[in-house]
Amino acid sequence: MALIKFPNKTVNSDVVNPYVNSFFDNFFNDSFISDRLVTRVPAVNIAETEKAYEISLAAPGLQKSDFKINVDKNLITISAEKKEESVSEDKLYSKKEFNFSSFTRSFSLPESVNYNDIEAVYTDGVLQVTVGKKEDAIVAKRLIDVK
After folding, report:
1. What is the pTM of this model?
2. Helix count and strand count (H, E) for the chain
3. Per-domain residue ranges for the chain?
4. CA angle (52 as vertex; 46, 54 as ends), nearest 5
5. Which positions fall inside the SHSP domain (predicted)?
6. pLDDT above 70: residue 109
7. 97 near 90, Cβ under 8 Å?
8. Which residues pair with 69 in a beta bridge?
9. Do residues 54 and 46 lie in contact, with contact meaning Cβ atoms separated by under 8 Å?
């Protein structure tokens, strides 16, 4: 099998106008444009401890009342909705901008979950959901002697 290396750029692409490629690269990589083209979903860290599962969700700029957490069978759904409308009565605007953001994240829960032991705390822009394990799912640790 022969490997053929193809050039990354087409030949003489920058000769015609060297500023065209850099303009479009800068335009589409601009954070103002890309923020509106990409749907934002908060990053999540999921960890398992001896007694619980911990779901940490980075969602700055929200309040506790913006969150809604539902548990249905083996599925936990975390959602938030924030709507802000800036209205000023003393000025006549030709353009008004609304700030609306929402997201929904769902996670499957294992059978070892204690559904009566679920807590959520929102501090410093991080939602911390702790899902407890059943007593029979908590593994007792012990030291095994080698003979």
Report:
1. 0.62
2. 3, 7
3. 42-87+98-140
4. 25
5. 35-147
6. yes
7. no
8. 78
9. yes
Distance CA(59)–CA(127), nearest Å, equals 7
* Phi-psi domain of 119 (left: phi exceeds 0; alpha: psi -120 through 50; beta: other): beta
Q: Kindly report, residue by residue over 26-36, the tens digit of the pLDDT.
A: 555 555 444 45
Annotation: CATH topology of 42-87+98-140: Immunoglobulin-like (2.60.40)
- Residues 57-97 pLDDT 10s: 998 888 898 999 999 988 999 999 887 666 656 666 666 66
Give the pLDDT score at 121. 95
Alpha-carbon span 99 to 36, nearest angstrom = 12
Given a contact cutoff of 8 angstroms between Cβ atoms, the answer to whether 103 and 147 are in contact is no
Q: What is the pLDDT of residue 86?
A: 60
Q: Could you tell me which of 77, 74, 96 has the C-alpha nearest to residue 87?
A: 96
> What end-to-end distance do the CA atoms of the chain give, in Å?
55
Lookup result for tokens 């990053």 = 43
DSSP H/E element including 31: helix 31-37
